[in-house]
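Example with several molecule types.
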Amino acid sequence: MPWTREQMAARAAKELRDGFYVNLGIGIPTLVSNFIPKGMRVQLQSENGMLGMGPFPFEGEEDADLINAGKQTITELPTTSYFSSADSFGMIRGGHIDLSILGAMQVAQNGDLANWMIPGKMVKGMGGAMDLVAGVKRVVVVMEHVAKAKDGSEDPKLLKECNLPLTGTAVVDLVITDLGVFSIDKKGGSGMTLIELADSVTVEEIKAKTAADFKVDLNGKQAA
Amino acid sequence: MDKVYSDASSALAGLVKDGMTIMAGGFGLCGIPEALIEAIRDSGAKGLTFISNNAGVDGVGLGRLLETRQIRKMISSYVGENKLFAQQYLSGELELEFNPQGTLAERIRAGGAGIPAFYTKTGVGTLIAEGKEVREFNGEKYVMETGLFADISIVHAWKGDTEGNLVYRKTARNFNPMMATASRMTIAEVEHLVPAGEIDPDCMHTPGIFVKRMVHVPNPVKHIEQRTIRKRTDAAVLAGAGEEV
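Resulting structure tokens for the full complex:
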């Protein structure tokens, strides 16, 4: 069985460490905040200018001046601080954020990431994604293993080389999909390694759905 | 010299000319100088270049100036919430320059601080770096980006005093402080206008030197793009816990 969105988020939460400052992207990455282990101190950064992001407000307590980078209403915590966009990206670009968890359209075996543009189709913009992957110490991608088209056909998202415009080159450290987990040696250049499988998923199934070359080193982590 | 004008239109009177470059603060619809945007709409000036992180949504914020086709070019990081924008861009009416959000913030900060250019690792090896100088420092590649400076900046603050000192509120701060520094003519709309001396000088975000004109806009209507809440019964108080509605 492939992992659900919640299971992928729970797996991503295992990358958190006590004391981390973390930036979570929109979509499944946002769910990671529901799986922060009890007792672990993690401060969430929102790149529109906030550290110490709290939960969504109770109904009637929404504040239009208090939103996250996904433009969702949120709340503050006793640890919260606010700052300008320049200070926010100073934190990000300056390497002060420990972990960035974000979604992707494509990831290449060397750690290249594409997640902001489909030429001729989507003109939305990169927002803060290019700054995050360039500046944050560790970059974790959470995404579906393949892209499903409307006609039911599937395209691999883990590739030898991305064919969409890049967000960053050799920036991804770890990829969590609904089928498994891959580590990428982005600095050393020794490529991608499959390190975990989702329940009952086989290496053969992953090979069939992956265009990238990868090594397999499950280290006893293969689920039954 | 009195910096306070009676309303947004008189604060802008005689300033906005066709073809000008204008910076507008805000992230999404949070902290946007909406009264001043309306006044620019009423000025009828055409062919404007706007530097703003987003382009508003249909019918709100800069979306209003797209309706009237007063904007020729946008310099932004994300414009995904605006159908009219996509339409005008794809038809070639509207020019668009995407900047990574941090690069945009830093270009504005640099422009206001008299720094003509800087190097950043953001965007190296991507479309953003095409045609720009790439230089190596300590074995890593960086791309050169230039500072931005506008004819006019319009910003939204929570509180301001008659000297032009500004205080922003929560995440409505965003791009406003840098934009206030990066133009020849910065106009601030403030929700609360107080006499000089009332705001603690240790707590000011933008010193008055950067603000040339001000307008008092009490109780502005504020817009929420994504209203997300949690139920009172939710035991979890974890960050981000709750549901989208």
